[in-house]
Amino acid sequence: MGWLLSGIEIRNAGTVASHGGTLLDSHSMMVVLPEHKLGIIVASNSATSQGVVKTVATEALKLALEAKAGIVQPEPVPASSADVTLPPEQLARYSAWYDSMVGLVRVRPGDDALDASVMGHTLQLKPRPAGQFGLRYKLFGMIPVQVSAFDGIRISMKKVADHDVLVGHFGDDTMLVGERLRPAPVPQRLLDYVGEYRIVGQKLGIMPDRLALRLEDGLLVGECSFSELPGFVLRIGLNPISDTELLVSGLGTGKGETILATSKGKDKVLLFSGLELHKVTN
Asked: What is the count of structural domains for the chain?
């Protein structure tokens, strides 16, 4: 089992290691402080509890650390929220498709900030010092508002090997949150696969009730939604490597997997991770 050594804000406690588990209908978080022989597991069978299990685990462990070792957490230092003005040509350099830990993101330049479309919502990326961007939610896709969940979160871009990666800054911690994508030319044959799809065969567990393959701004996009999760739209970038194979774009778990574009009779078929998807014809 892999352990994350960043992302949980517990100060003056030595090593803080965590491991989270996530399914569409349940979430869990395990955090341990090896030097103090303290640990906690929080589990939930709620589809919307991903942030809650992390918060509960962190706050409970802080209290346990104080009770056992007398270590009280310092007051958080507010992150600088000073705005930085970037010229339009510099903002335009960020315009691209990005893979992220929450799915596909399309970034476009605005007047004095960047707009990021993700999971059916729009975020504003406001320039901050040191090449970072702060996050604000755009109500109705138009009105930027500050959301407490985004307080203290900053995003920046770094060059790592041959990858332009997105780095998330959470207090003193940083983590990989995504990668800038470089869409490859789409073979003519794969254009015939663009459309809506249905799952054929036995469905196991929670399955999407709406599936589609789209072509947007030169990128093949896989899209799905779930009746159990209203408003949640998962989108992934797909990189064709031949006229029969596509790879899931991005870095990290689940990335680089293969989708086969084949046929059965007159049906256009996509094969992915044991699923057989047939194109819906009118």
From this structure: 3
